[in-house]
Amino acid sequence: MTIQTTEKSFPTTPRNRVKRMHERATYDRDAVFDILDSAFLCHVSYVIDGQPFCTPTIHWREGDWLYWHGSSASRMLRQLEKGAPVCLTVSHLDGLVLARCGFNHSANYRSAMCFGTARIIDQPEEKARALKAIVDRFYPGRSAELRPDSAQEIKATMVIGMQIEDASAKARAKGVGDDEEDYGLPVWAGVIPVKTVLGRPEISPHVPEGVVLPDHLAAYGEGRALDEVLGETQALYETLGETAARS
Amino acid sequence: MTIQTTEKSFPTTPRNRVKRMHERATYDRDAVFDILDSAFLCHVSYVIDGQPFCTPTIHWREGDWLYWHGSSASRMLRQLEKGAPVCLTVSHLDGLVLARCGFNHSANYRSAMCFGTARIIDQPEEKARALKAIVDRFYPGRSAELRPDSAQEIKATMVIGMQIEDASAKARAKGVGDDEEDYGLPVWAGVIPVKTVLGRPEISPHVPEGVVLPDHLAAYGEGRALDEVLGETQALYETLGETAARS
C-alpha cells in the first residue's frame, strides 16, 4: 500500500484509487471541491450490520469538512456514535453519448467520491454554526433575515460532519468515442447535452405584500444552470465568512 | 419483525421502512418504478471489508429486476461472486424550498431506495439481452441499427443485475411549510423549481453527410425534461418488447 500525498491532492489509497477508466480520474483537491460545491444533493453510503444503505441528502462543505442533513437519523445514530465509515458521492449528468456500437455508448458526467469517518455534530456552538451554514452557504446572508430556530427545532435537526480523509473525482467531457473503423457507418452518433436549470421563483402565498426577491437570491435567475449558481454562492459564502472573521 | 406484502406494494421490512418523515413515503411498486425509470443515473452502495462505497452508474429496469453497468468492476467482482447485498438509490431534485426560519427550509424531490442481492450477469444469452436492453431501453429500436459489439467488447463490459427484494419511495412536492406564526414576517419565502433538461443534439463530426436524427431519438427534443423523456422511452421499450415476444 502506497500513500501519495501533496498539498494540492488527496492521498491515493486502496480505497479511493480509481480502478476503471483511471484516465478520467483526479485526486486534486480543487477538482473534488468544485464537483461537491456545484451540487445540492449528494448520496451518502453507510453500513449497518453488513447491509449497505444509500441515502440522498443535502450537503455542504467548509474546507475539507463535509456536512449533511441528518436524513435517516434514527438508522445512522447508533453507528455514528462509534464513528462510522462513510462514502459521500456527488454526481452531475452532463450529456448522453450515442455511438455507432453499443459498447461505445457513454455519458458525460462529473463525480466525486469522498471517504471519511462520520460523526454527529452536537456541540451547541458547532451545531449552531452548522445550522447557519446550511442556509447561508446556499443563500449567502439569508440567515440574518430569518426568525431564529427555536430550541426545539434545533433539537429536531440532526447535522452530521466528516473530514474528508481521501477522495477522487472522475469526469468525462467530450464527444463520441467511436472506433475509426465505424466512422463511415450511416448511423446517427453524437452527444445530447443535459443541464439542470432553475425555474422562475414561486413566492409563497403567505408572504406579506410588498416583499420582493432579496439580493441573496440574485444568482438564482430563471433558466440558469444550478451547478453554476451553487459554485457562485459557495464562493460568495466563503468571501463573506472571511470578511466577518477579519472584521 | 413484521413483513407486510401485497401485490401492488413491496414488503415493508426493518431494512426499507422509512423512519424519518414517513408521511412522505410509499412502498407502492409503481411509485418506485416511476422514480427509477425517470432517471439515467443511480447510486449503488456496496460494502468491502466493512467500508461502504457509493458509485454512480447507469441503471435500467425490467420488471422487478434492476441492471447496471459495471463501474468499479474490479472492486465489486470478488464481493459479487458471493452475492453481495446492495442498495441502489435514484433521486430527482425538483425544487429548492425557502422558508421563514432555517428549520423549515427544504427541497422538493423524488427518491427510491432498492435493496437486493447483486450478481454478475455472465450467462452469454442473458448478457447479450442485457447489452441490447441498455441501448434500447433509452433509445428504443436503436440496437438494430448499430454495428454489433465484438466478442472482445462484450467481454470488457460488465453487467450487474439484482432482483428488488424490498424498496421504498419518498417524495416532497409542495410549497413552503412555514409555521402559521411566521406568515406575517416580511421575508421572501417560496419555491425555486429545478428541472433537468436536454440540450440540442450535437452530431459527431465523424458521421457521414446526409444522416439525420433517427426516429428513436424523437423524444429527446431540445428543452424537454429528461425525467419525462426517460419515462416515455421506458414505456415504448416495454411496448416494443411485448410486441416482439408476441410476434
Spatial strand arrangement across the major sheet of chain A: 2-3-4-7-6-5
CATH class of the domain at 22-182 in chain A: Mainly Beta
Arithmetic mean pLDDT of chain A:
91
Give the topology string of chain A: H per helix, E per strand.
EHEEEHEEHHEEEEH
The greatest inter-chain interface is formed by: A-B, 100 and 100 residues
> Which value, in Å, is the CA radius of gyration of chain A?
21 Å
* Alpha-beta content class of chain A: alpha+beta
Characterize the biggest β-sheet of chain A.
6 strands, antiparallel, barrel
In the CATH hierarchy, the third-tier topology of the domain at 22-182 in chain A is known as: Pnp Oxidase, Chain A
Broad shape of chain A: globular
Helix content of chain A: 10-25%
In terms of per-residue confidence, which ranges of chain A show pLDDT below 50 for 5 or more consecutive residues?
none
- Which superfamily, in CATH terms, is the homologous superfamily of the domain at 22-182 in chain A? Electron Transport, Fmn-binding Protein, Chain A
